[in-house]
Amino acid sequence: MRKTISLFAITISSTFAFSQVDTTAVFEEVIIQGNRLETPFNQSTRNIEVIAYEEIQKLPVRTVNELLSYVGGVDIRQRGPFGAQADISIDGGSFEQTLILVNGVKMIDAQTAHNMMNIPVPLDAIERIEVLRGPAARVYGINSLTGAINIVTKKSGKSFVAVNTYAGSSFEQKEEGDGEGIYGGGGLQLTGNFANERQNHLLAISQDLYNGQRYNTAQKNTRLFYTGNYKINSKNTLQLIGGYTYNDFGANGFYAAPGDINSHETVETAMFSLSSKHKVGRFTLSPRISNRYNEDDYRYLGKNIDLAQSMHFSNALMAEFNISAKTSIGDFGLGWESRFDEINSSNIGQHKRDNHGLSAEYRGVFWRKLIATAGAYINYNTNYDWQVYPGIDLAYLFTPHLKIAASAGSGQRIPSFTDLYLNQLPGNVGNPNILPEDAWAYEANIQFSRKGITAKAGYFYRSISNYIDWVRTSPTTPYSPINIGENLVHGIHANIQQQITSKNKHQFGYKISYTYLQPSYKSEKNIQSKYILESLKHQLILGVNYAFDNFSMQVSNHFIERELNTPYNLLHIRVNYTIKDFSIYADASNLLNAEYTEAGAVPMPTRWFTLGLRYLW
């Protein structure tokens, strides 16, 4: 922690040697992509953070999982590094309570949220990532109980080709029984955008191959992604999305340590979406149909051993229709969506359920200072009947640079098929009688943005009733989910960032983010929890970047402490040098060689070095 504080002091003291330039304009021009109402970033009434493409390119990351760990309040808990598998949560929630979207298409996996991050999008295809903190049922519907993350891909009118290849290693000898040599691997990402005035076609292909970072953690990950945007005329557009991911990895310690030392898992995911947008007078109509199919093959005793094999086939067909209208008294949005989930599984069984939602929103600006957004989401599920989830957000603009905002919102998380029906004795057994989780959250924050510096600080309180956790009464009984009681969280968050350029064109920037969470639980049951005791408590992210001419460098430090777990520091560095269309970069991850785990009993990689080459035409 002393090293972290020292880095903070160096960052602040360095700012006085440079002159400021305004670099916030790029964020002010961003339009937040709600499913009904689109809002300029600087007029947003919610706590939203945007990671732009320019920032993504500076960070020492190669996967979306790694990238999201740089967002304050977002807790990435990897079982397998290098994009193999990760659980994601926001502000101390569980990994089932956060919603991931790609261009507004929901990546909900009704089998288990362990597979939700199995997405086909490589980094060079991403334009930005929008992170919405707090219950978002009013905007995105079910399972956005603690927040939502929308990955927005490029739809530039300019053609380009990007090639990114990299290789790395810990230079540690492989463990006995895991082959010869050292642990290492690498990957290749190819992204092309072919565009003219009326259309663009983005195609991305990536392949990662690693022989692991400890015994039985080898990984092969293939991603294919396509999106096409067609401008039929000035009032009608069409978007097509398709993606496929093949993720094959050794799962040592992922779910049932230490007995699963030889376990193996293969997850295949395919997604498709067809949407359009039509302007009719003051109305905008947006229909969409999408589908997500997932296969999960888990083998407890080893890759080629059929005994103790679990096979899961799940599918989600989704249909949406949204309409919005701009009037003299404000903007109105109305939406309907239907979702049809089904699963056929060796240890979950064959099940179906339908979910239908109706949403309404209103956004108005009063006295040119007060922005109000209010609405509700009405949900019907074939297992749980009707529920209503309202919300309201307010923002007041003292000046164009200073804003205060407050929100009160509700949300829901519907149990997964694993929660309800899993039969995996003696380890885990589902519970078909559990109820959905319901949440209310209240937040207030203050935001400032001017001359290259942006700052935000706030407080929130969240209450989740019917909180679901996997528990057991003794070490000899299986884990089973129950509605354990009420989950309460108080939290504060603050961040500040700045980009500065000196008179001789040296560029310097810093970003500091801190989150503190205080969870508590109201439950009278004397039971052993599987997930509660690992929620995030302290998170401090410090980043410094420097650039001059063709050279740039990014240094980042993460301090993380979870409930009842040992805190740890992770120091990462990227050095980059550009020669015309080529960039050569070197990354050092976990430079302090910290020993830590993020999920279950899976030790994460020690110090890891990567060398990469990127070409952009």
Helicity level: under 10%
> Gap between N and C termini, in Å?
42 Å
- Large-scale geometry: globular
Structural class: mainly beta
- From the alpha-carbon coordinates, what is the Rg to the nearest angstrom? 24 Å
What oligomeric state is this?
single chain
Task: Explain briefly what this protein structure is.
The protein is mainly beta and 617 residues long. Helices cover 6% and strands 61% of the residues.
Write up this protein.
The protein has 617 residues and is mostly beta strands. It is 6% helix and 61% strand. It is built from 6 helices and 35 strands. The strands form 5 sheets. The chain has a 22-stranded antiparallel beta barrel. It has a 5-stranded mixed sheet with strand order 4-9-10-7-8. The radius of gyration is 24 Å and the shape is globular.
Reconstruct the topology from this structure:
Layout: H1 2-14, E1 19-20, H2 25-28, E2 31-33, E3 38-40, E4 48-52, H3 53-58, H4 64-68, E5 74-80, E6 85-90, E7 98-102, E8 105-106, E9 126-133, H5 137-140, E10 147-153, E11 160-173, E12 182-195, E13 199-210, E14 219-233, E15 236-250, E16 264-280, E17 283-299, E18 309-327, E19 330-345, E20 349-366, E21 370-381, E22 385-399, E23 402-413, H6 417-421, E24 423-424, E25 428-429, E26 437-450, E27 453-472, E28 480-501, E29 507-522, E30 528-529, E31 536-548, E32 551-562, E33 568-579, E34 582-589, E35 608-616
Parallel strand pairs: 7-10
Antiparallel strand pairs: 1-28, 2-3, 4-9, 5-6, 7-8, 9-10, 11-12, 11-35, 12-13, 13-14, 14-15, 15-16, 16-17, 17-18, 18-19, 19-20, 20-21, 21-22, 22-23, 23-26, 24-25, 26-27, 27-28, 27-30, 28-29, 29-31, 31-32, 32-33, 33-34, 34-35
